[in-house]
Task: inverse folding
C-alpha cells in the first residue's frame, strides 16, 4: 500500500472524527486530519534535525526539527507519536514521548491538528528510516535557532510553527 492509500480519520475544527478517507484524498481536498510531532533529544540535550526525502507527499526535501506524521484511522496521538518516533529514528524501546500541547495548524500545505511531544533517546544510536530521512544530525539548540534565523535551509512550515509554539510554551507556559 502506498502512503497515499493509507486511511486517515477526518476531523472537524474541534478535533472530533467525522469520517475517514485515503491520505491522498485528504491532502487533495484539504480535509482536516491529525498529526503527531515529536521533538527528539539525545543524552546531551541536542535536537534531532533532518531533511525529508524528495519522495515525501508534503514538504519534500525540507528540513524539520520534529519527527512524526499523520495518525492512521482509529489511532490515538500518544501511540502515533511513539510509532512515528521509533520508525523515523530507526530505534526501538523508546520511552513514551511526553505530550506537551495540541494546536490547529493552518498554513502552507493545509490544515491539521498537531499534538507536540518530546522524547529523550538517551544513548540509543539512531538509524533513520531511509524512505523518510535523507540527512540528519543532532544540533545544539542555539545552532538550531541560528539555522532557523539565517533562512538558508528550507524548513517545513508546520514544524516551524510547532517549534515557535514550543518555545512560547516553555517560556511562558502558553498552551499551543
Result:
Amino acid at each position: 500500500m502506498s502512503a497515499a492509500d493509507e486511511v486517515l480519520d477526518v476531523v472537524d475544527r474541534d478535533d472530533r472524527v467525522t469520517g475517514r478517507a485515503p491520505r491522498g484524498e485528504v491532502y487533495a481536498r484539504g480535509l482536516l486530519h491529525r498529526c503527531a510531532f515529536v521533538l527528539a533529544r539525545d543524552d546531551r540535550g541536542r535536537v534531532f534535525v533532518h531533511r525529508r526525502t524528495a519522495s515525501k507527499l508534503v514538504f519534500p526535501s525540507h528540513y524539520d526539527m520534529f519527527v512524526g506524521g499523520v495518525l492512521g484511522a482509529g489511532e490515538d496521538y500518544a501511540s502515533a507519536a511513539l510509532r512515528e518516533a521509533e520508525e523515523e529514528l530507526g530505534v526501538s524501546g523508546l520511552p513514551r514521548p511526553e505530550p506537551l500541547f495540541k494546536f490547529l495548524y493552518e498554513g502552507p500545505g493545509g490544515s491539521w491538528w498537531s499534538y507536540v511531544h518530546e522524547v529523550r533517546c538517551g544513548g540509543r544510536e539512531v538509524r533513520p528510516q531511509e524512505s523518510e530521512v535523507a540527512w540528519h544530525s543532532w544540533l545544539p539548540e542555539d545552532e538550531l535557532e541560528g539555522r532557523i534565523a539565517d533562512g538558508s535551509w528550507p524548513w517545513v512550515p508546520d514544524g516551524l510553527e510547532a517549534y515557535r509554539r514550543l518555545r512560547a510554551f516553555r517560556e511562558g507556559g502558553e498552551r499551543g
Notes: The longest strand covers residues 110-120.
